[in-house]
Amino acid sequence: MAKQPLKQETAPATLAPLATLSMEVSYTFHSHLIGRSGQNINRLMEETDTRIHFPDRNRMTGEPKCNNVVIRGQLSNLEKARQRIRMDIPVEIIVDCSSEKISSFGQCSLIDYFSKSYGVLLRFYPKIDGLSCQVNIRGQQYRIHHLKEAVSSFGYLTQTPLESMMMKIETSFDHVWLVRDHVDKIASVTGAGIRCPDVSNLKELPKKYCIWIRGSSVDTVYAASTMLNGLLPMQFMAQMPSERLNRCFLAQAEEADVLFHVETSVLDILTIRLTSYEWNAPFLSLGNSFEILRRCLGLATNQAVVPSLPQTWKTLDFTRNNFLPASKKLLKELSSSHQNSLSPQLGGIVVETPSLSSADGSVGSATLSSPLALTKSCVPASLTASRFDQNSFRRLSDLLETVGLARYSDLFLQNEIDMAMFTTLNDDDLISLGITSFGARKIMLNAIQELRS
Known about the structure:
Blueprint: E1 19-24, H1 30-34, H2 39-48, E2 51-53, E3 68-73, H3 75-88, E4 90-98, H4 99-105, H5 107-118, E5 121-126, E6 132-140, H6 144-157, E7 165-171, H7 173-179, H8 183-190, E8 193-195, E9 209-215, H9 218-230, E10 233-241, H10 247-255, E11 259-264, E12 269-277, H11 289-297, H12 311-314, H13 323-336, E13 351-355, E14 365-369, H14 390-402, H15 409-414, H16 419-422, H17 427-432, H18 438-452
Antiparallel strand pairs: 1-3, 1-10, 2-3, 4-6, 5-6, 7-9, 8-9, 10-12, 11-12, 13-14
């Protein structure tokens, strides 16, 4: 009997470390991104090999809304998911039209025609005077040319002058604080008129944060909105061994206008958070959030991520140091306000002051000063909404005790998994956490499915 050739064993591939990306998307678009029964977001997660979480609080009546969308996966996949989410967010142009013209065609007829011809959605809001009507024309980022054609066709069909149209960005305190010093420059570059909420008085903040853009064409208002969205805050979070952290990472972060925050997790593992503008990503040669995180995770240079960003962002030509000064200015304003109970709407922009004391360049300690620490509110607004939440973990711990799996509470605590993160886990995630019992995983997956429904 002939001997079978021995099969050559191959070493298992080393999985790249996971990280978390937290980005801002107006909560009004969350249901669109999720889709009916989660179809849209499930497809996106499968195609990008990521886990994506939307805030649980947005489903609760009376709870403050949160714009944070949290993505977890490998570094390159985080960027793929971020791009897909940005491209899937609707674009809505607002025009005023004569109510008489709308009535002559009929709202249903107009909705049907523009849906079939251009793939856009029309919504009508009659004004108090009864003579005019606000018309919202909604299209998609990846089909922006169809939206332009639809707006032009609507103006021609209804004989509506298109000398002035608007866009509305529903956003957060963090975003408004970051963009307010750049509004004049964006208006100058695009020719659009931009109106931002006043956040100069931290004792009297608005309940909602809406930025209004007015211009003479779709190109004008869309370019301005794209630039404003480029100044949205974005945060990475990952874990790394403490011995890998050294002063060069902190220096690179400061040079790239990235806020570098370090905190001790468990044993010799550190949790790092890198926060800056979303538009910070183009500066790959000088180091950006993606590149600094790659170095912190110890990934090879061939695993570097080159983000794909709109050309519009680069036309702003900002000086590099904008995010850190804005963050420090907010902390200074809060410190000088002498308030013990500021509005819970205040952002989670954090400022850290690391102590570099080791002779070998490693970080000896890091202290954190956060604007939120000066408030009585324990509910972060946006930048820190993706943080591990002790209250949310307690709900998870209670759930595990209810289903007879309380022994796993410490495991989830060590991995900084709260109820919000728990609902995003799948079977592979549970196995990677070290939960080998099939019965325990089955019970958890059933609980996750019930929580999602």
